[in-house]
Amino acid sequence: MTNNLNQLSNAIRFLSIDAVQKANSGHPGMPMGMADVATVLFKYHLRFNPKNPNWINRDRFILSAGHGSMLLYSLLYLTGYKSISIEDIKNFRQLNSICAGHPEYKKGTGIETTTGPLGQGLANAVGMAIAEEIFRKKFGSTIINNKTYVIASDGDLMEGISHEAMSLAGHLKLKNLIIFFDNNKISIDGSTSLSVSDNYKKRFESYGWNFQEINGHNEKQITKAISKASKSNKPTIISCKTIIGYGSPNKSGKASSHGSPLGDDEISLVRKKLKWNNKPFEIPKEILEEWREIGNKGEQLENKWHETINKKDPKFKSEITKDSQKLDFTVLEKLIIEEKEKHFKAKPSLATRQCSMMAIEKITSLLPQLIGGSADLSGSNNTKTNHSKIINSKNFNGNYIHYGVREHGMAAIMNGLALYGGLIPYGGTFLIFSDYCKPSIRLSALMGLKVIYIFSHDSIGLGEDGPTHQPVEQLAGLRAIPNLNVFRPADINETFECWEIALKSKNTPSAIALSRQKVPYINPNNSKVNKCEKGAYTVNLTSHESNVTLVASGTEVELALKVQDKLRENDIHSKVVSMPCMELFDLQPENYRKDILEYNSLIVTLEAGSIMCWQKYIKGKGINIGIDEFGESAPYKEVYKHFKLSEDDITNFIQKKLRE
User: Fold this and answer.
1) d(Cα 553, Cα 612) in Å, to the nearest integer?
2) What dihedral angle (degrees, nearest 10) is formed by the CA atoms of 202, 203, 206, 211?
3) Which of the four, 62, 223, 368, 386, has the lowest number of CB atoms within 10 Å?
């Protein structure tokens, strides 16, 4: 590195060292080791504009190795992003600081995604690279041509999600995706040789990636590698041989610099070795000015981009920058009402996965922003419709991705699609495999992304596939995630209504659980109102003075109605409540919740799954009926009967309870 670039890199190193030391917590080694690569990237190659962090054609910079968060915060401060001040740097890892322990996505800050759970940022980047290809195909390569750059650690590449995401990226030939592998050969436990001996070159080339290997502290090698990757027709991974804790006399190249502060004595030695004669958090004026100049170049780049658009087609500007959060849903609302009127007349009996496919088919024609897909279960999830156009390496003019058997990768890639901007991703698998998607779903919720997860085969009702495929605890697990709406519609009306809510939700992802078996049309009255918006509503009551309130979701609403008929035969009046979304119901005013759940009657909840999340709705001698053990392999009606989920068993149970 030239002396000038060394000083620019050292600004990153010492901000990182000082912030970690002040917080007495953090990971200084990675920012020290990757500072040279980041400096070359930002100075000579990365297109970004700190004055407009939301510029759609900016290059994306993803720090998948989120433990090295101070590298990112230092870069954002140094290049002039208003989101991060020197005071924020000093408050690293403190309450309410934007400089959290691991990067947390906030739109317009330069922090492109939430990272830390290793492999997630890398997979998000694949989604962003796919989104770039979709937009480039739509608007042309002179208008959309950004790159997606990732810094990934050995840990990112050990996680299984990296295989899924990189395999798909190679298959799709995402040429504008470039990963810097921080190959410092150190993990928390010590040398990476303790746990891995992969031939990285063969591994990544087998995916269809270009592989380069460089000295991560050599300016010429770094810039040459980036230039070569920029001209490639494949995604590229650049293995950067770096020294973790670079500049530390006693801790460089050692695990001791990975996840702990260096200590005051060692920091003094680093300052001496790297000739950094400045106080903590002090950046010399000339170095800060040069970093700010690097940031200022982005404004000129964006202005030239706007000139290009105006010459080609000024109408593109509003189309490109359209925010999926601010869409006008008037036409969608009208469509849903029209469809519900048709259903009221036809009263179809369909599996809710089929109902969902009908909703997708209708909605896709209105919302070209929808990008669908499935983890090799398109026909089972019913996520693919007549309006689905397949995206492949030769044509990104589509709206449907075959993710293959890659649930981990699919979920994280959908987050990347949403983060790019202007797209609404949905993707499907079986509910049982939501466990494979869970880390990404959690991050969708943490980031407040509009991502829609379609989970079919939602209960023991799938039958013969047995307990390995019959979800029991999955709904409870999903409902435990903050800021996630979990929908379980009971019929075609509710399915359309749940889709409408999911599409209109601004900062909340959605999981829609759908049945394999058919369900009847349940709504006795035609209504233009979206009843699911309140989370629960009364489907039917036999008297305004009910002895029993039956609360159910999904396929068990039909069961509740059958139980209601049995109870009426025995002169027991009841009310049936459908609760397609607990999260929305829990947000309703107390008077509405009390009106729906009449606590002067016996409250009975029904769901063919864990009762855990239903326990909060019963008081006194209420009953939670469900399954808290693994399922059985048999035709679904026999499985329901085996678990005493027949109308006769439930009716007898309720009568016995009323006699107590």
Assistant:
1) 14
2) -70
3) 386
Q: Is the dihedral of CA 119, 226, 167, 509 positive or negative?
A: positive
Neighbouring CB atoms inside 10 A of 102's CB total 19
Active site residue 159: no
Q: Would you state the structure tokens that stand for residue 166, as one six-digit string?
A: 């990189």
The CA distances from residue 395 to 309, 400, 598, 603, 630, in Å, are: 23, 11, 56, 55, 44
Give the residues across from 62 on adjacent strands: 150
Joined together, the tokens standing for residue 576 give: 């049936």
DSSP string, 17-69: HHHHHHHT-S--HHHHHHHHHHHHIIIII----TT-TT-TTSPEEEESSGGGH
The reported pLDDT for the residue numbered 104 is 98
d(CA 420, CA 56): 8
**Active-site residue (options: 407, 494, 497, 556):** 407
| Residue indicated by tokens 């080609």 | 312
Of 377, 380, 406, 402, give the one whose Cα is nearest residue 390: 402
Name the stretches of the chain with pLDDT < 50.
none
Across the beta sheet with 370-374, the strand order is 400-402, 370-374, 424-430, 452-456, 510-513, 485-487
Assigned token pair, 552: 């159910």
User: Locate tokens 């790159």: which residue?
Assistant: 147
CB 253 within 8 Å of CB 244: yes
pLDDT value of position 324: 64
| Buried residues in 501-523 as b, exposed as e (16+ CB within 10 A) | bbbebeebbbbbbbbbbebebbb
Quote the pTM value. 0.97
